[in-house]
User: Fold this.
Amino acid sequence: MRYELWLGLRYLLSPRKERFVSLIAVLSIGGIALGVTALLVVLAVMSGFDHDLKDKLIGTNAHLIIATEEGLSDYEPLMRQVSSANHVVGVSPFIMGQAILRVPAPTGELGGRPGADRAIGVEVRGLDVEREIRVSRLKEYLVVGGLPQTDQDVVIGIELARFLGASVGSPLSLISPSDGKRHELIISGIFRSGMYQYDASLIGTTLARAQQLFGLSEMVSGLAVRVDAVEHATQVKTALLAQLERGTIVKTWMEFNPTLFGALRLERIVMFIIVMLITAVAALNIVAMLIMIVTEKTRDIGILRSLGATRWSVARVFFWQGCLVGLGGTALGLAGGMVLTANLNAIADWLEGAFGIAVFPPDIYYLDHIPTLINPSDVAQVIVAAFILTVVAGIYPAIKAARLIPVEALRYE
Assistant:
């Protein structure tokens, strides 16, 4: 071990007469640990929300959508062509449109207030039931009943069912937007996707019924495509655009909600900067601590210089102290962040039980737990950023120590 590192470690660990300097050292380590812990927890929660949101969006929708402005008529050859592309694991035709839903006075299992017929706007999706299970997880989301088996069947979201007071077997009436005719249907299943937008407004029916409802004859709105991994969606899109006819529209799952994902990315950046300010404040404490140590060890610095130590050798002594404080704080923060993230839901449950505080109300967030995801790249960025801040904080005090003149340092000793 070089003597600069040994001496710097000795200055940190040996008892001093100046207790205030030791207190600042502890506060500096604690501040860095607190900043790293807070940043890791915040990023883990935001990554968890991001992952959970993506999972729900992809679970209800496909990874890619292929369509044209006028719709697709003879789509079977196109389906075979798309199915043969690399990374594609499922293709299914679909119809998407809006209609008006009317329902009689509710009397179902899911509750509701009796009253007159209701009419609301809904989003209707026509499904090829046999192929749909290859491109979405709608079947997995069913809480009761099943997917449509006949043209009279529909599946609806659980929030819509609660609002209407409907259950499996309840009649529904959809009014066609193309000709105004009423289509009498029966609920065959109720699903819960975890996305309120879909659970409160999405209705699934057969492809044939949707064609009748929207007056599309044998046409469909487009093809839903699923790939083997979400990361391959952009790659598959590029390959398909090179193969398909001009005018064909191909969109990935990320392009369905660009504003939402853009806001999430911006939010992560802003939160990273805000929480990193905690570490920056702790880094300022390191500067103050090292300057005090330099002042306290002026005599020692003079002796070292008199014995032949170079300026840069003296600078390294105090520079290593800053690095050691930063390394200790970062290590403690890393351990604290991992432990706190792993037990975040348990802590929230304890707070709710002990103090009656709803840390994560499910009726607001539409989740039954706090989603967390520890991303190795986020952890690496936090550790590197925190350590760089502490290293930079130690530069000025080290230079200040190196500039001390031996004669001036020993004059009054």
